[in-house]
Structure formats: C-alpha cells, structure tokens
Amino acid sequence: MKRGSSPSELVCFTVLSLLSTMLGTACVQPYSTTISHTSNKNLSPKGFVDIISTGTRQIWNKKVPGTQMEKLRSIIQDKYGVKFENYWDFHEWSIKNYSQFWEEVWNFYEVVCSKPYDQPSRRIGDRIIDVEWFPGAELNYAENILRYRDDGVALICVDEDGKELNVTFAQMYEEVRLYAAAFKKIGLQKGDRVACYMSNRREAIYSMLAAASMGAMFGGPLPFYGPKTVAAIMNIMKPKFLITVDRFQFNKREFNTLDSLPEIVNDQEFIEKVIIIPTREGSKLKDISSVNNSCFLDEFLKRGRNSDGNIPELVFEQFSFNQPVFINFTSGTTGLPKGLVHSAGTFLPLLRDFGLHCNLDRTSVTLAMQPASIKQL
Ligand SMILES: *[C@@H]1O[C@H](CO)[C@@H](O)[C@H](O)[C@H]1NC(C)=O
Ligand SMILES: *[C@@H]1O[C@H](CO)[C@@H](O)[C@H](O)[C@H]1NC(C)=O
Ligand SMILES: *[C@@H]1O[C@H](CO)[C@@H](O)[C@H](O)[C@H]1NC(C)=O
Ligand SMILES: *[C@@H]1O[C@H](CO)[C@@H](O)[C@H](O)[C@H]1NC(C)=O
C-alpha cells in the first residue's frame, strides 16, 4: 500500500472489507456508523503509531487448528524442502523469497485469470518498488471479487435506524451486471474515471465493480468533505461520471449532499452524468434540476436494459496485473488532496490479510463501517 508524500498526510490502512467477499465472506455494511472512538480518549497526542501501541493488550490467544496460514505454510515446506520452526521463520522466508511467496499465495487462492503469468515477478530497477508483478498475466479485478455467484449472503446492509437488507452473491453479480450495462450505454470506457461521493452503501460497491469490469478507474472523496474539497478532487480526477446520494445520516447527524452538488459539478465540463441515489421514500420528489446533467439511479439503470428488457451479459475485460483500478485520495491536510493509483493486483495483499492473517472464510462476517475512499484519521 502506498502513502501520501508527506508524513503528516497519512493514507489510512482501512480496507473496504468487500474485498473479503473473494473469500466468500459476508460483509456487514452499515450505511454509516455510530461507533465512536471512546477508547482513544486518553492517548498521547503524538500520532498514529502511539495510538496503536498505547495500551496494547492481548485479547485473543486461542489456537485455531488448520488455519489457511498453516495450510499454505505446509504447502511451501513440502514444495521447497524447507522447515519453519515458527511464524517468524516463515515470515523471513516470505520476504527473502518474495517472488515464490506471492506465487504460492496466487495459487493457494486460485486467482482467476485468462492468461497465466510468465513469472511471478521481474526486477526492473534497484529500488524496492522496482518490481513488475506477474508480467504476462491477464485478469480482471471485478471477476476475482465476483467469483462466488450463489445464494450465500455477500452483504448485510444496516443503517442507523436499524434497517437491514441482505444481498446474496448471486444478487450482487446481477446488480453489477446491470450497472455495467448502464455505464456502457452512457459511454463509459477503459481508462475513464467514475467518481463516487456517498456514504457507505451497496451502490458504491456495484458501481466500483462495474467500472472495474471494463477497465475504468474508481474513486472519490469521503462523503463528509465539503463542496470546495470535493470540487478540487473532481478537478484532479476528471471523472466522466459521478455517482452520489441525495443525503445521508452519520451519527444521527444529517448531511445534505444534494445542496452541495451544484457547486461541485456545475462548472466541471468533463462530468457527463451525475447519478443520484434517492435514499428515502420521497427522495425522488426532490428537485434535482439545479445539478447539471443529473438523473436518479432508476433512470440510469433503465439504460442498462435492452429494448426487450434483458440485461446484457457482464463482460470482464482482461487486463494486466498493474491495470489501474482505484484512485485513493489523501486527506489534503497539506495542500490539495493527492490521488494515489492502486492497480488490479491490490486484491492479493488483501487475500493475505483477510485470508492468511484473519483466516476468514465463508462462515465469517466482517464489519465495514467506512465509506468508499480513504478514511481520515
Ligand atoms: C482505495 O479505495 C478503494 C475503493 O474505495 C478501497 O477499497 C481501498 O481499500 C482503498 N485503499 C486504501 C489503501 O485506502
Ligand atoms: C530463499 O531465500 C534464501 C535466503 O536468501 C535462499 O537461500 C533460498 O535459496 C531461497 N529459496 C528459494 C526456494 O528460492
Ligand atoms: C441477513 O443475513 C444474516 C446472516 O446470514 C442473518 O443473520 C440475518 O437474519 C439476515 N437478515 C435479513 C434481514 O434477512
Ligand atoms: C450548468 O448549469 C449552469 C446554470 O444552472 C450553467 O450556467 C452552466 O453553463 C452549466 N454548465 C455546463 C457544463 O453545462
């Protein structure tokens, strides 16, 4: 993962736990959160490292048998004729033999690709980042996320009022298919950008995967940012489409997105369409005419259907491992926010984190409170 260019501008290591759905894990996705960081109250003000190291205590020491970590470890021991005495031996091997290690992670999690890699990594310079990963491989980020298409629960969407809605893996796939078809109809192409400015909602996931299916990039500001910062981010990102909400609630506070939208989009000629998700009964009665080129979600999704009502098949265009997929923005505490590009291959470290380290599988549920974009500390 990359960081902002100055140390005071930290990209938080939060991960949209949707990515854990690659492991078939259900993800609880509250629209926003009421959890406050009460435990941070008495911390020294020095910084992130102090915060995470203060008061660290062991909360779990049960031995779980047959973890994914142990399975991978024994595969590697057998294959390479090595013997790891403990976790740190294995860790050392994994960083000294990083090419083999990531190749084994790739195989272990059965990365979906249409063309295999020529080699797991190739040095292209002397610096630590001068490595080309999995050259030759062709794959699609969204295809890897959407590998399960059954009736297991993929998303448990919960809002602050306690309303709950479940989305299965099959439903999620169908939604992405519809979003992709609609985006294609209105002109989204490889290399274009889709901006997202909304609270933590399932529509962000559908539009992100739809964009990734055809090689478009996805990203945007946190929903809490005001119109000036958001407009600045739009200017950097130059998205063709913006997907957003009329309003949202965070910690009982009401945020009215619609009011900010004219200032955000009306002078940005590159934004061809603003798609507004009506979040409540009655939202659709709101007047959106002050937002140039805007429409409600329904109208956008209607475009995805053929005249006979059918939805075209979802096509996963095939790209290299380093195909850009996300643009994540730094908080902008030192000047304008900076956009960091993450490639298709970013799901591999997440498999390491959620799979090897957290041992998540189809029986697990993870909580993701953060909206798309980085999370500000
Ligand atoms: C970058 O943004 C994507 C999409 O919002 C998210 O899934 C990912 O976790 C972000 N990466 C970081 C390092 O914050
Ligand atoms: C792993 O790294 C060690 C230390 O650099 C080296 O001796 C060993 O040959 C490597 N193993 C493989 C399989 O490449
Ligand atoms: C959603 O799925 C979870 C986990 O399977 C289940 O406990 C919950 O009752 C479901 N909620 C609804 C509204 O169906
Ligand atoms: C957006 O709308 C405003 C008035 O509502 C108009 O002056 C402006 O030219 C429009 N911008 C674009 C890019 O269409």
UniProtKB/TrEMBL annotation:
One Pfam family linked to the record: AMP-binding
Keyword annotations: Signal
Domain Acetyl-coenzyme A synthetase N-terminal: 87-144
Molecular function terms, GO-annotated: acetoacetate-CoA ligase activity
Annotated InterPro entries: ACAS_N (IPR032387), AMP-binding_CS (IPR020845), AMP-dep_synth/lig_dom (IPR000873), ANL_N_sf (IPR042099)
Signal peptide: 1-27
Lineage top rank: taxon: Eukaryota
Domain AMP-dependent synthetase/ligase, chain residue ranges per copy: 151-368
Family indicated by similarity: Belongs to the ATP-dependent AMP-binding enzyme family.
Protein name per the record: Acetoacetyl-CoA synthetase
